[in-house]
Amino acid sequence: MLRTYQLNFFFLFVLFYFIYLFFLFFILLFIYLFFIFSYLFYFIYIFFLFFYFFFFLYIYTSPPFFIYSHLFCFCLIYYYYYYYFYYLFILRFFFFLI
Questions:
Q1: Which of 6, 18, 28, 69 is the S-S candidate for 65 at Cβ 3.0 to 4.6 Å?
Q2: Is residue 62 part of a domain?
Q3: What pTM, to 2 d.p., does this model score?
Q4: Which is more confident, 22 or 76?
């Protein structure tokens, strides 16, 4: 026959187990949402990358900014593409972990 303290420990164990499941659910939900929103932000990032590309192409072709504009344009496009590939590398690393 179970004693009262044994029952208390059993219910305590059950309580902490459900608390653990509760937090596990939210942790997994957070990870899942993080990957979904990172994927969405990736497409938003690509959209702005092309927007900036055409914007700096316009600057490059406009007569007032023609002097030194090719350097300015090249530096900024390189900057955006650098972070684009960096993001892909991070994403690949996370998918490797899964």
A1: 69
A2: yes
A3: 0.34
A4: 22
